[in-house]
Design brief:
single chain; mainly alpha
Length: 124
């Protein structure tokens, strides 16, 4: 299990380095300043509101699912007083906690990547 987390951490670090280092001569595609410049102008007011609401709904529903799943995993071993099952349940709970953190940071991660790549993230 530790190898899995180590690989994920290395992947995230490499992705971060790849996103932050810009090679000479490579241009990130942007919209010219004379044309549509903001995310809301590109998507329209209604679609931008739908995107914001969709991300919020994903965060809320994902958190509820993770919490309910965590309770369903943890309650049977606690009631049965089984140490091995409780140990397996705790590993599952750690995975669910990591997923929950990613869900809560989803909007921030998208805004971070948008800022690195010089994209307008006002509709996120």
């Amino acid at each position: 299990m530790k190898k899995k987390y180590f690989k994920v951490i290395i992947f995230v670090l490499l992705l971060f380095l790849f996103c932050t280092i810009r090679a000479e001569g490579i241009e990130v595609p942007t919209i010219p300043s004379g044309e549509l410049s903001s995310c809301e102008e590109i998507l329209g007011h209604d679609l931008a509101a739908i995107v914001k609401a969709g991300i919020t709904i994903i965060q809320i529903v994902g958190a509820i699912i993770a919490i309910v799943k965590g309770m369903m995993v943890l309650i049977p071993p606690v009631l049965a007083k089984d140490a091995d099952a409780l140990k397996k349940a705790s590993k599952t709970l750690v995975s669910l906690a990591i997923i929950l953190i990613v869900i809560f940071l989803f909007r921030s991660i998208l805004m971070f990547l948008g800022n690195i790549l010089d994209f307008d993230t006002s509709c996120i």
